[in-house]
Amino acid sequence: PQGSEEAKAFVNAFLKRSMPKMKDEAIQDILTQKAVVLEHYSKKKTKQKRKKTKGFTAKQRREMRLFEIEPEQQRYAIFLPLHELWKQYIRDLCHGLKPDTQPHMIQGKLLKADLHGAIVTVTKSKCPSYVGITGIILQEFKHVFKIITKEDKLKVVPKLNNVFSLEIDGFISYIYGSKFQLRASERSAKKFKLKGTIDL
């Protein structure tokens, strides 16, 4: 029956379960009101932290010889198709190398382009033994180019203090290695200054 002790005990117990964060005095105050608003407390979901996949360290890459080209693969003829692909890539990048194309536009594109497969020649160098080396770029690192020559010799040429030239469809571009000491991925986002003095 309404007003009995059992009913009071049930209501008090029910409100305690429904509003666990409230004190008994606060619950009694709510009972004096005409309406009772029951609160709902949702359990906070703990977010699982994603584990970042760690790549190989530089030491591990050296030990695994990931970037080494086997001696039997060091042949100029093997990489000629790569050079043809690179030429097509540059033509697409420059929207066709037409005679009326502005040279500075092509130069700007080449500065940010991937050079793997390009045929380059060392035209100037502080070290005379590097001058005249011509070949296909097989690998580009921050400070060096790895070039395969027509004599099937793999040359490691530093960028510092060297000037390289590359030719495509009659257009000749010069690369000043001292200003080019970036990885290919970093170079694509870099803004190059068109003017300024350039030293070896």
UniProtKB/TrEMBL annotation:
GO-annotated molecular function: ribonuclease P RNA binding
Record keyword Plastid present: no
Pfam families, per the entry: RNase_P-MRP_p29
SMART domains: POP4 (SM00538)
The keyword tRNA processing is annotated on this UniProt entry: yes
Gene Ontology terms: biological process: rRNA processing; tRNA 5'-leader removal
GO CC terms in record: nucleolus; ribonuclease MRP complex; ribonuclease P complex
Subunit structure, as described in the record: Component of nuclear RNase P and RNase MRP ribonucleoproteins. RNase P consists of a catalytic RNA moiety and 10 different protein chains; POP1, POP4, POP5, POP7, RPP14, RPP21, RPP25, RPP30, RPP38 and RPP40. Within the RNase P complex, POP1, POP7 and RPP25 form the 'finger' subcomplex, POP5, RPP14, RPP40 and homodimeric RPP30 form the 'palm' subcomplex, and RPP21, POP4 and RPP38 form the 'wrist' subcomplex. All subunits of the RNase P complex interact with the catalytic RNA. Several subunits of RNase P are also part of the RNase MRP complex.
PANTHER family named among the record's database cross-references: RIBONUCLEASE P PROTEIN SUBUNIT P29, RIBONUCLEASE P SUBUNIT P29
Protein family membership: Belongs to the eukaryotic/archaeal RNase P protein component 1 family.
Descriptive protein name: Ribonuclease P protein subunit p29
Source organism of the structure: Mesitornis unicolor (brown roatelo)
